[in-house]
Amino acid sequence: MPRPELLETFPNPNAGRDYEIRMICPEFTSLCPLGGVESDAEELRALQGGAPDFGTIEVTYVPGERCLELKGLKLYLWSFRNDGIFYERAVNRILDDLVAACAPRWMEVVGDFNVRGGIKSVITARAGSRQG
Amino acid sequence: MPRPELLETFPNPNAGRDYEIRMICPEFTSLCPLGGVESDAEELRALQGGAPDFGTIEVTYVPGERCLELKGLKLYLWSFRNDGIFYERAVNRILDDLVAACAPRWMEVVGDFNVRGGIKSVITARAGSRQG
Amino acid sequence: MPRPELLETFPNPNAGRDYEIRMICPEFTSLCPLGGVESDAEELRALQGGAPDFGTIEVTYVPGERCLELKGLKLYLWSFRNDGIFYERAVNRILDDLVAACAPRWMEVVGDFNVRGGIKSVITARAGSRQG
Amino acid sequence: MPRPELLETFPNPNAGRDYEIRMICPEFTSLCPLGGVESDAEELRALQGGAPDFGTIEVTYVPGERCLELKGLKLYLWSFRNDGIFYERAVNRILDDLVAACAPRWMEVVGDFNVRGGIKSVITARAGSRQG
Amino acid sequence: MPRPELLETFPNPNAGRDYEIRMICPEFTSLCPLGGVESDAEELRALQGGAPDFGTIEVTYVPGERCLELKGLKLYLWSFRNDGIFYERAVNRILDDLVAACAPRWMEVVGDFNVRGGIKSVITARAGSRQG
Amino acid sequence: MPRPELLETFPNPNAGRDYEIRMICPEFTSLCPLGGVESDAEELRALQGGAPDFGTIEVTYVPGERCLELKGLKLYLWSFRNDGIFYERAVNRILDDLVAACAPRWMEVVGDFNVRGGIKSVITARAGSRQG
Amino acid sequence: MPRPELLETFPNPNAGRDYEIRMICPEFTSLCPLGGVESDAEELRALQGGAPDFGTIEVTYVPGERCLELKGLKLYLWSFRNDGIFYERAVNRILDDLVAACAPRWMEVVGDFNVRGGIKSVITARAGSRQG
Amino acid sequence: MPRPELLETFPNPNAGRDYEIRMICPEFTSLCPLGGVESDAEELRALQGGAPDFGTIEVTYVPGERCLELKGLKLYLWSFRNDGIFYERAVNRILDDLVAACAPRWMEVVGDFNVRGGIKSVITARAGSRQG
Amino acid sequence: MPRPELLETFPNPNAGRDYEIRMICPEFTSLCPLGGVESDAEELRALQGGAPDFGTIEVTYVPGERCLELKGLKLYLWSFRNDGIFYERAVNRILDDLVAACAPRWMEVVGDFNVRGGIKSVITARAGSRQG
Amino acid sequence: MPRPELLETFPNPNAGRDYEIRMICPEFTSLCPLGGVESDAEELRALQGGAPDFGTIEVTYVPGERCLELKGLKLYLWSFRNDGIFYERAVNRILDDLVAACAPRWMEVVGDFNVRGGIKSVITARAGSRQG
Predict the structure, then answer these.
(1) Distances from the Cα of E78 to the Cαs of A44, D113, E67, E90, in angstroms?
(2) What is the phi/psi pair of residue E40, to 5°?
(3) What is the rounded CA–CA span in Å between residue A65 and residue A33?
(4) A85, A93 in Cβ contact below 8 A?
């Protein structure tokens, strides 16, 4: 299970101005919740939920009172590593967790996942509204 | 004939939020309905409808109550493999079939086809309306 | 002289929906109407109107009742091969001829021509109006 | 089964000189001989040998007395379309068939296949010897 | 621990000819054996050996009597997922395991790892000798 | 501490027209204010505030009465070299200092920083409003 | 001094339609008006105004009654070759001269100059208004 | 018919040193000698030998006593414009004509032709021998 | 002064095999030893040796008994940050220091430095000899 | 006339080791000695030798006792600015002048010139011999 409690925040140094922060995390990996690997190798235990998925998570937001701390975001994304989760659910879950952690004025999460079965998937979800 | 009954859907895990799903399928192939191959080789039987066409199909949509399942989309696109169909008709047909299968709030289908006769074709069709 | 009578059309298979067709033709060539080649070589007869020009013609349109047939477009563009014509006139002429042939709801023609005298030219003309 | 009898040749116009011909065919497709598609859809009959594979075949050779005709090569490569064949066998088979057809002084066939299961494969086979 | 017993092979379909097989695996991940993550989150248990590393493993070989089966290679590389191992050791280990599994005439393994601490690492090891 | 007094300006040669000036500075470096380098090497004294950060600063503005002089901007950006500062604060600080120096009609500062801990950051802040 | 009298125009062949002409001139060079080269070499006489600057000038416009002739534009841009001029002034000067020469409905001039002192500059100025 | 008499040469300014000259001509066009266009349009007369072919001709040589003049090479390549000729013959013919014109110590001609029937062709021929 | 004592090594895990390690460090910065910045700003003290230089250092080697530890290499390269040193001397110095630290069988150091005065410099030095 | 007396050198800091220095100068410009510009504009006086040529000069060498100083190389290349000279002669002249100035063990000069008349030219000349 993803652990949003790993997220940490710090006070926005310029809360009086709307500005944008983009964090691009090209090393996201989780497991496909379907088609568990058929193997009794102890080392593949973690994969029994399914084959590994890889992708890039891109978070863009206009901070409110608090900003996301980079190290906490890194640990939070690592916590999906051995978790079985669908793309759609992962992107919406990340958006919900990050919004809950830092209450941004606007936030967008894009999950750009590697080809599976000859098809590449990109999921984009947004919260809040944005001017300009 | 394309077989839309191969498409499968699953419940949208975040139906309360408008978000976007893009699926990029670079391995689409069908046959040109004109100019059948003149050959009596048994192996080219499937090509008698015409020369092979190749392209990328890119589907972007805002899901409603249901999402398209990746495996079903893959099988559905494979079902064009030995079918003779014009580009314009193929893209509109895919849009119609996918809309019928999952009733999205908005959907766009782009067919980006390889050069034929020195000319490259890109067809884009949309259904529904989209905010923002 | 360009020969618009080479253009052919077929009925729009989805006239009930506004969709977009883009055709990219990277092998356009005509002759510069200035500065004829000074040579009495019989083989350069065709060039006496001037030096060859090369470019890409990109046609994008929303079809009305009829679509442009690819083979006819190819032959039509070939008919500029030994013709002396300025860039501005060529692009506007192609737009006029294609609009006359298929009466689109909207059409754009872009001529992207190779460097001449250290300067690259791109001409864009449009007809009709477009939503969204 | 691939049909090498579709290959045609013409006399090398410069057999007195060693020169190189490279033909790049980015639209190769065959079927994976493993894991047939589980479906009773009549349209997927052709796929019962397995999922479609896609790749680029690049043939480079120094012709001997005869050159490969482009149209015949195209038809020959099309004849793999509904055939189940492994990558290694396909590349070696193409090399054998082309060598038998035109007896080149040297030939190389490279098959560069799309990602399957997160792994991309490139197979290279050569026949004859080459100077310089 | 990596599990080389997951590797599988099949008879080389053209053992009489030296040819080359290249398999590019852009989704390799393991753990850094240094600097374990300081966290008591149960979900990060697997990371206690250290932070995740990401890279591409490229295997090129001239097969002897047997070829590496793609699915087994994929499972074998997955077995590094939750293992702490240095880059140098990982690349040499993969080379040793693959050579033991299929006894190639020549083999090269390249590990191209993502930036860590502002430095990117690429490790290349080879076994056997190669002509031409 | 950054030294805005190094900035210099010159009269806008076309103050009667709104036009845009973009200055791209790919050689920005500062220090991370966290995790000072543990070393008693005298040469690393300057790094005791933390590890070096690298990035590109892109300033775009519509000048008012005065334009920023290039040499002063260069010296001002150099003055961050041995300073410990967070990304968010750096970008907002640069925007504030440049606005104070030249009173533009509109200004945007983008800081595009190199990967740290597997995550790339891009911060964008704007001041003033812009037409068209 | 730049010589706008070198500019020539011809009648717009389609003055009844708003269309766009873009001319990209990647071989612009002038001299920096600061920091004259300290040398008594006769050959560097022309550089005494300062070091050479290099850039690309991109002119985009919607013609009115007349179009800019390519050869005249080339000669006009060449006339900056041994002139000392600041970037901001050069771009605004070119815009003014071209507008005076052909009275376009709308025009944009972009000067994209090479890195100087580690900073790249792009200046954009526009005249007139544009629809769509 | 190509007209080699259009080629002109000038004395090699450094005949005492082996050095290399490469001339890249991306605007080569000729006609395919097969499949004449079926049309009675007078403007397509020139195409009755077949459809237009497009490609890049790259000439690299070590000059002997004389160098090829650029303008003559340009006119010579233009003389293929309305000629029907196969790729293999065109490249060997160009090599023969250029060698006859300037007697280089070594010369290579590469013809890199656009995709036809889904296949791209590159032909390379050389004359003379080269050190280092 | 650079501090080679910051370099650390670890035993080569495969000293019985010649293999290659490449480390690419795109964040190298030092100071130009010429043309000190004329400024009495305390913050620019570190720059009094001259303007900042930026570049990428790429180290490739075949390890002997010991390998270079990544963290030590990073600290060693950081120790050039406020040092005035010419490109040629920096690259040769790095090669000497690294060879002294780990006694490789072969090593190459490439310094690829950013444009200064319109000229880009790349310096390459090697030590030891290499097979194959 | 080019002024080689502007070149300056400094003692090679590592004359005991063969290493390589590459200097890439993308801002070379001279004049074509043919086809003077027909204009009586005083500002085009400098162009009466012909139209401007642009290119990149890339110098690679293994220094002997002395290295080329960057600033002198820059001034030397600037001295071609208003000089009419053919490509072949320019590259050989630069090689001769640089060899005379610094007596390298080996040197290569590449002149990569922009397209003229639809043809791009690259001239490469070398002096001395090189190992490895």
Answers:
(1) 8, 21, 19, 13
(2) -100, 15
(3) 36
(4) yes
Helix, strand or coil for residue A119? strand
Tell me which amino acid residue E8 is. E
User: What secondary structure letter does DSSP report for J35?
Assistant: S
Residues belonging to chain I: 132
Q: Which of B95, C64, I101, C27 is nearest to H51 (CA)?
A: C27
Q: Which residues, in sequence order, are CB contacts of C27 under 8 Å at separation 6+?
A: B118, C77, H52, H54, H114
Alpha carbons within 13 A on the beta-carbon side of H11: 3
Cβ–Cβ < 8 Å for E65, E100: no
Count Cβ atoms below 10 Å from residue I40 Cβ, excluding itself: 7
Q: DSSP 3-state assignment of I7?
A: coil
* B54 vs B30: CA distance, rounded Å: 7
Residue F27 forms contact with I (CB below 8 Å): yes
Q: What is the mean pLDDT of residues J93-122?
A: 96
Structure tokens at D63: 């012709």
Position E34 pLDDT exceeds 90: no
Local mean pLDDT, 10-residue blocks, chain C (132 residues): 94 94 97 65 55 96 97 95 92 98 98 94 94 58
> In this model, does residue B7 exceed pLDDT 90?
yes
Name the token pair of I103: 């006694």
DSSP H14-72: TTTS-EEEEEEEEEEEEE-SSS------GGGGGGGG--EEEEEEEEEEE-SSEEE-HHH
- What residue type is B37 in one-letter code? V
Interface check for J114 against chain C (CB to CB < 8 A): the answer is: yes
C-alpha dihedral (A18, A19, A24, A30), degrees to nearest 10: -10
Angle at the Cα of B23 (from B19 to B27), degrees rounded to 5?
175
Which residues of B have a catalytic role annotated? 32, 53
Instruction: For residues H108 and H99, give the distance between their C-alpha atoms in angstroms, rounded to a whole number.
Output: 10
Per-residue tokens: E53: 């590393």
The residue behind tokens 């839309």 is: B4
CB contact, 8 Å: C123 with chain G?
Answer: yes
Structure tokens at E47: 């990371």
HSE-CB for J124 with a 13 A CA cutoff: 10
Per-residue confidence band for I24, with pLDDT thresholds at 50, 70 and 90: very high
Q: How far apart are CA F108 and CA F118, in angstroms?
A: 26
Nearest alpha carbon to residue H78 among J32, C120, J119, D13: J119
ipTM associated with this complex: 0.88
* Closest alpha carbon within chain F to A67: F88
Q: Which amino acid is at J2?
A: P
Q: In this complex, which of B14, B26, B74 lies closest to A92 when CB atoms are compared? A: B14
- Length, in residues, of chain A: 132
Euclidean distance between CA atoms F125 and A22, whole angstroms: 12
| Physical contact, J and I (3 or more Cβ pairs within 8 A) | yes
Measured between beta carbons, the chain D residues lying within 8 angstroms of A52 are 118
Helix (H, G, I), strand (E, B) or coil at C18: coil
Element at D77 (helix H, strand E): helix D70-78
Name the 3-class secondary structure at I103: coil
Nearest to I37 by CA among I26, I28, I46, I25: I46
What is the rounded distance in angstroms from the CA atom of residue E46 to the CA atom of residue A29?
A: 13
Alpha helices in B1-132 (DSSP H): 70-78, 87-102
Answer whether F13's CB lies under 8 Å from G92's CB.
Answer: yes
For A53, G42, J22, the CA distances from E49, given in Å and listed in that order, are 21, 69, 44
For H108, nearest residue in chain D (alpha carbons): D19
Distance of CA E11 to the CA centre of its chain: 22
Instruction: Name the token pair of G68.
Output: 């800019």
Burial C69-87 (b: 16+ CB within 10 A, else e): bbbbbbbbbbbbbbbbbbb
**Phi, psi angle pair for A33, to nearest 5°:** -75, -5
